[in-house]
Amino acid sequence: MEQIRSLSQLLEYAKKIGAEKGPKKISVAMAEEAGLLSAIEEARQAGFADAILVGNSDKIKAAADQAGVNLANYEVIDERNEPAMGITAVSQVSSKKADIYMKGQIHTNNFLRAMLNKEVGLRKGKNTISHCYFHSVEGYDRIFFVADAAFNMYPDLAAKADITQNTVNLARAFGVAEPKVAVLAAVEVVNPDMQATLDASALTQMNRRGQIKNCIVDGPFALDNAVSEESAKTKGIVSPVAGKADVFIVPNIDAGNMLAKAIVYFSKNETAGLILGAAAPIVLTSRADSARAKLLSIAAAVTLSDFQK
Amino acid sequence: MQKLDFLLDESRKGRPMTLALACPYGDDAIGAIIGAKREGIVRAILIGDEGRIRTVAEQDGYDLSGIDIVDEKSDEKAVEKSVRMVSSGEADLLMKGLVKTSSLLKAVLDKEWGLRTGSLLSHLFLFEIPNLERRVIGISDGGMNTYPDLNAKAKIIENAVACYHKIGIPQPKIAALAAVEAVNPEMQATLDAAALAKMNERGQIKGCIVDGPLALDNAISEESAKIKGINSPVAGNADMLLVPDIESGNFIGKVLLYMTEGKGAGVILGARKPIVLTSRFDSMQTKLLSIALGAVVARS
User: Which residue among A301, A305, B203, B221 is least enclosed by CB atoms within 10 Å?
Assistant: First the structure.
């Protein structure tokens, strides 16, 4: 496939999947909010998604009316108990009736607890579940994948290896044949007093030894030499990743969150996110996200689900 | 490098180096120095209780004619004088006789008249291994630093690299060893090895190629590296094994010396001048090679 280089292209690609292979089914936990239903309806009309709506059917109806969505196009499962909504919604995915697990109004705790449920959840062995922000930024010819800026707070090396592999898999689903991964720190040299630089070194070697696959990992990088070839050259860094990174692995949630939000608020960009590393793609948008961001997250989940099939 | 005997040839070139031997009261050190003098490897000055030195030499039938002796009865002062001779340039390298290693090192590290450089002292042992095609392999540090951290390991590599440059290997290949060649977050040796490889890539460790983690087999055997699918300029071709701790280094060294027909040469690096520190259990050949290695490194 051709590499998806912007989020508009992502949307087109999801439509193509829908047209060629039919829509992917989303199972939504507590689908009781109008904005969410609008985004799902848009994805349905674009032909790449369909949904099972789990929650209080009265409230779903009210939200659908508010959004002008016709519920005749959806399967609604009436469930009044919030934790049970999560279990019911996730079961649709683990039993293969749906392809994507999505959070509605349900509390994040209940949503995730259901996802981690040993019997009906989506955990893949001990693999770390992680979040990825993907940004298309004006002036750059490719999508930047940033992980983990939202889910794992202070991941250790083993978790960072999982996060890297999860994110690489998403980049590959977006058609980046061999994603270039920059492991970020504040500096590009190894400093025994900065754990991020040590972890970055270890991740590089794990990649070389085949412990992290289908990508080229290098680090530590400071952000400048990961995105700018010139900066890398000035610093004398010889690396296939320098200046060409697709994936940015951040040392912790604080740095990652500020990086992602700096991109969102300071640049001309489009941004969406996805939860990775489970048996199926997971969409966890917040009410504050725009309808467009929700639609893009769904498109990404559809693309990843298609890639993993 | 195929054979260690080249050290003997190297050490004979140019101005002979002068070795200061502190407290040579054991037959081993005097014997080695007599041998080294006969081979033309170094000139020697013996510093210690002259009466005691002469008695030991006589008992073992060593002829001390032509060897300078500086009479100094106290061990502490003999050590100090030896070190001062080297720091003043009167001698080019230091060797330990029958005196505690700790006393010698204390003098070496003296701030006023010692030989410290701000670097770490480390021990390098070069082995000639008969059943390996690439015969000479170094090990560091199996003799001095017990449980070096990452910073110390980087310095151990730097010391060794400077020595390799002097013995004519301009870009030594250094394998940072662990029990496995994969990174395992539970095994510090693998984490340190990965960091050292990266420090080398980022120019923080220069003049060499570092890779790791490597297991001993894939560091020295190209076939083993190939079977494991390791793509590395160092795997199978290591000039030096950076060991994670003193035990592992010591065990490899002792297997080579006692269980193979191997011979070796050891030296302490990281001071302004090399320090030869042989053990009485070393063979005469190993002692001579160690002195020769010290002399070659001393030559600037």
Answer: B203
